[in-house]
Every structure is written in C-alpha cells, then in structure tokens.
Amino acid sequence: WDVVFDARGNFHEPHTGVIVPLGTIPVRNYLDGVGEISNGHGIQIAGGGLYPTHGPFNRFKALLFLEKEGFQPLFKKVKLAERYDIAIMSTKGLSVIASRILVDQLCGEHGIPLLVLHDFDKAGFSIVGTLSRDTRRYSFKNDIEVIDLGLRLSDVEAYQLESEAVHVKSNPTENLLKNGATQKEVDVLRSGRRVELNAFTRGDFVTWNEAKLDEHGITKVVTDGSVLDQAFRRTLTHARLT
C-alpha cells in the first residue's frame, strides 16, 4: 500500500521563495529534484544564468523546525532565513510523516543539522523525541544531528517568561526524561505549568533565536573558489556587454 497524507505545515527554502506543503506528494516531488538545476529555483546571477542548486547544496546549511506556523511572517520580516542560510519548516504540533521523510533525506544525506524550536511542555519534548529516533509510524534511514534549541527551563528563567496552568492527566516523568528533559524541568512540568514560545515579545524572540543560532555555529553558506570564480566571470562578462 502506498498511503499518502494531506499537508500539515510548510517547508520554506531561503532566497528562492520555494514553499513545499508538508504532505506526502509535495515532499516526494521536492526531494526528487534536490541537487538538480531547476528553472526558477536558482539564485539569479547577472548575465541571465541561474545558480545551479535545488535543495541544501550551496543553498542552506541547517534546517529549523518549529512546532507552530505563526512565526513565519516575523522570520520573513527580519530575513532570518536569508541572513543565516537556513530552511524553515513548521507544523501544527507533532511532526507529520512527510516532515520526517524530508528531514531524513535533507539532513541525513546532506549532513546538515536539524534545529528544533518548541514550547516548554510535555508535547514540546515529545516533538524533539519523534524527530530524534524511530517510532511506530516512521523509522529513520539516516543518522541525523538534532539540536534542541528550546524552550528549555533556563530560557524561561533568563527571559522571565510567563507560564500558564495546564492539567496533567498522568505522570509524565518517564516520557519527559526519555525525550531529554532534566529532572528540574520534569518537576516544573509535573506541577502543572507550561510556557509557550508565544510568551516572548517579538523582539526578544528574534534576539533569543539569533543567539541560539550563533551558539551552535550556524552561519552563512560559503561556496568554494570555483563557484565564486564562475559567478565573478559571469557577472564581469555581463557588465562588459552592457
């Protein structure tokens, strides 16, 4: 059986404007073209040529995952993806199978890290867990470097973020520890408190996010000399002809 699922969330490439709905068919179509020269998917270079890339190669060096979709307009306004050369993926809550397939191939086969932003709650830690290991619904084919950017308790305390009450239906200790929470974080979450990413002011959220990217060494893509030489010669030729 070849079961396909509708999209729940989107994947955004930096620079190109390419948006991939996180459904089975759109993700397959995108991955089929990764690494190929694709009209409309390259960086426009003076002289009319397109920079030959589709996917991570010479395009982006990290993939940022958010459990919420509402932050994309803010990221677009501050040009976060372009300044750090990262692709951004967001879903509604837990990652869907299509998003894990995308992560598996992009991060695993191209050696780029997966950076995860989530709420400080049980569901947030579960999101990190499902992107870090095999589950009943999906088994990863590649080893992936997963970096938990937070929210973590240290972030909540540093920015004095406001918490909210949540009903704890059952003891979450085992699940939280399995998904990377510290004992102190378990104690806070067991007490019936949680903190959402929305608790940040917009300015603090951007500052905090940038600090996390800097901390983990996420920087611009620097192409090799041959690529730069090709771009320079093309631009010089165009300038002389015009």
Structure summary:
The protein is of the alpha/beta class and 242 residues long.
Topology:
Layout: E1 10-12, E2 19-21, H1 24-33, E3 63-66, H2 72-78, H3 80-84, E4 87-90, H4 97-110, E5 114-117, H5 122-130, E6 146-150, H6 153-158, E7 164-165, H7 173-178, H8 183-190, E8 193-194, H9 202-215, H10 225-241
Parallel strand pairs: 3-4, 3-5, 5-6
Antiparallel strand pairs: 1-2, 1-4, 7-8
Helix pairs in contact: 1-4
List descriptors.
10 helices; two-stranded antiparallel sheet; 8 strands; alpha/beta
Textual characterization of the structure:
The protein has 242 residues and is an alpha/beta fold. The protein is 40% helix and 11% strand. It has helices at 24-33, 72-78, 80-84, 97-110, 122-130, 153-158, 173-178, 183-190, 202-215, 225-241; strands at 10-12, 19-21, 63-66, 87-90, 114-117, 146-150, 164-165, 193-194. The strands form two sheets. It has a six-stranded mixed beta sheet, sandwiched between helices. Strand 5, helix 5 (122-130) and strand 6 (146-150) form a beta-alpha-beta unit. Helix 1 runs parallel beside helix 4 (97-110).
What structural category characterises the helix and strand content?
alpha/beta
Mean pLDDT, to the nearest integer, reads 87
Chain oligomer state: single chain
Sheet-strand content, in percent, reads 5-15%
Q: In total, how many beta strands?
A: 8
Task: Give me the number of helical elements.
Answer: 10
